[in-house]
């Protein structure tokens, strides 16, 4: 689906006054509680050609800090996934720098990387995705189902939405995304989880480069205020 337009703006004077005396991590926590609704699963989709590990790590840590349980990172060239360790190192570094002594309260599980043993009592889970986790994953799931039918472990009448969901490996254990933040000039999500985003709110932002927390929170505020009719 085409990404919905979002009138990008900085937070207003009233919000700056309200948060002016509050330190960063305390402010992030209170911001998350103040929103009318918070996405359970957020997708961070980069359509720009040169993704920034530091800026993406900041976005992931902010997601953790405000209380988002599941985060998916995606770029259409698969750069983040191919350099998964580099991204995870940057996230761990910024966890320490941005959250300080509160770091243990905002731990994250790296769901497709071997550094999961570096965090305890995980409150957030992260997956790094690429185009192979989109249409290719659906094709693989269909092939697996056909094999089950050929082996008489399933019948063709067993196929439904829940069965296909269970066969998809890319988002195993993750709910469908509630919100996608799409960064860059391309008016498309470029293959990000096409099966899972039929009911997802998509907000377009100009760039993830040098993004500020105010920009990030403005997008969350926009999501919290939108009315989702679920096709009604």
TrEMBL record:
Instruction: List the catalytic activities from the record.
Output: n isopentenyl diphosphate + (2E,6E)-farnesyl diphosphate = a di-trans,poly-cis-polyprenyl diphosphate + n diphosphate
EC number(s) on record?
2.5.1.87
Gene Ontology CC: dehydrodolichyl diphosphate synthase complex; endoplasmic reticulum membrane
- Residue intervals passing through the bilayer: none
Q: Which gene encodes it?
A: Nus1
Say which domain of life the source belongs to: Eukaryota
A GO BP entry is:
angiogenesis
Q: Where in the cell is it found?
A: Endoplasmic reticulum membrane
In its UniProt entry, the species of origin is given as Circaetus pectoralis
Q: Which GO terms describe its molecular function?
A: ditrans,polycis-polyprenyl diphosphate synthase [(2E,6E)-farnesyl diphosphate specific] activity
**What functional role does this protein have?**
With DHDDS, forms the dehydrodolichyl diphosphate synthase (DDS) complex, an essential component of the dolichol monophosphate (Dol-P) biosynthetic machinery. Both subunits contribute to enzymatic activity, i.e. condensation of multiple copies of isopentenyl pyrophosphate (IPP) to farnesyl pyrophosphate (FPP) to produce dehydrodolichyl diphosphate (Dedol-PP), a precursor of dolichol phosphate which is utilized as a sugar carrier in protein glycosylation in the endoplasmic reticulum (ER). Synthesizes long-chain polyprenols, mostly of C95 and C100 chain length.
This protein is called what? Dehydrodolichyl diphosphate synthase complex subunit NUS1
Q: What is the lineage of its organism?
A: Eukaryota, Metazoa, Chordata, Craniata, Vertebrata
């Amino acid at each position: 689906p085409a990404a919905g337009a979002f009138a990008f703006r900085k937070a207003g004077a009233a919000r700056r006054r309200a948060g002016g005396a509050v330190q960063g991590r305390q402010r992030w926590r209170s911001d998350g509680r103040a929103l009318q609704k918070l996405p359970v699963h957020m997708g961070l989709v980069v359509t720009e050609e040169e993704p920034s590990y530091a800026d993406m790590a900041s976005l992931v840590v902010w997601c953790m800090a405000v209380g988002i349980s599941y985060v998916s990172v995606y770029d259409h060239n698969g750069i983040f996934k191919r350099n998964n360790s580099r991204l995870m190192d940057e996230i761990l570094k910024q966890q320490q720098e941005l959250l300080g002594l509160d770091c243990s309260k905002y731990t994250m599980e790296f769901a497709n990387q071997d550094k999961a043993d570096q965090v305890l009592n995980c409150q957030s889970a992260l997956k790094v995705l690429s185009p192979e986790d989109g249409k290719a994953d659906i094709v693989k799931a269909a092939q697996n189902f056909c094999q089950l039918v050929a082996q008489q472990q399933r019948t063709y009448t067993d196929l439904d939405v829940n069965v296909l969901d269970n066969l998809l490996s890319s988002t195993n254990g993750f709910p469908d995304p509630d919100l996608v933040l799409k960064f860059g000039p391309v008016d498309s999500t470029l293959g990000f989880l096409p099966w899972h985003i039929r009911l997802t709110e998509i907000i377009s932002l100009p760039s993830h480069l040098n993004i500020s927390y105010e920009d990030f929170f403005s997008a969350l505020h926009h999501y919290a205020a939108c009315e989702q009719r679920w096709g009604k």
